[in-house]
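[User]
Um, tokens okay?
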Amino acid sequence: PVFAVNTTQALRGSIDDYLAVSGDIVARSTIEAYPDTAGRVSRVMVKTGQRVSKGEALVEIDPNRPGMNFAIAVVPSPISGTVVSVPVQPGQLVSQQLSVARIAQTDELDLRTWVAERFVSRVRVGQKAQVSLDAWPGQVFTATVRETSPVLDPASRTLELKLSFDRADPRLKAGMFAKIKLITESKDNIVKIPATAVVRRFGKTWVFVVKEDSERAGGYLVERRDIVPGILIDDSLEVENGLAAGDEIVIRGQTLLEDGADSPMIFKFDPSMIPIMGFMISGNRSPEELNEIA
């Protein structure tokens, strides 16, 4: 019979366990500007997106009433930053309780997210995170947990986290939705393999390793190798015992293999052309027949 299998090498590297959460990019400091007096907006002196300095005039308020004349009141910016909202327009009546502008310090952005109560023991200040944004598909930004709330939200039973981006980037904007992988555990210098290589039967776990047959020139053997699996992250499995880095393992077609299966004919694809090297493990087939199968 012909057994078509794909193989790849066991690698030595690192593996990261993580919590997958979502969050929002927010300005670290956002301040509302309120007038000192009630009146009618006579002039709006800024627009959304404009940079302003602390004390710079934002809006002029006319507090005059019939029979009562007052000086024009100016609403200054409480901080230096960027105007992110101006919810008033000339002629509108305002009071001391109504914000006339919102100023944010967008040079420093935070990432705000929440984790469920059952994961609280796995988070701490200083943890690293990988951040992806729908606005920039395929790009990964790094961040670090800067602050954890001392209490949980009693309604949602979640803990609020604030993360700081490791590097300022003009592509990051307040209000963006973020998908976050919060790294909770990292293991370095471990052997890892694709999870698809593993066979589990009768309470045992093993993989098939392709080795050169020392008794036949150009021949190969398939060896069943019991392993001790570690943590599984996405499609990567840590192997604690049973494999070494560089071992050639079968990742597809192993369900039909048996320990000691041999092959007089092998086709090995160039690993620089495709990410997974392929083998054709066969019985007595000619090269022409194998080419047709491949």
The CA atoms of residues 5 and 15 lie 26 Å apart.
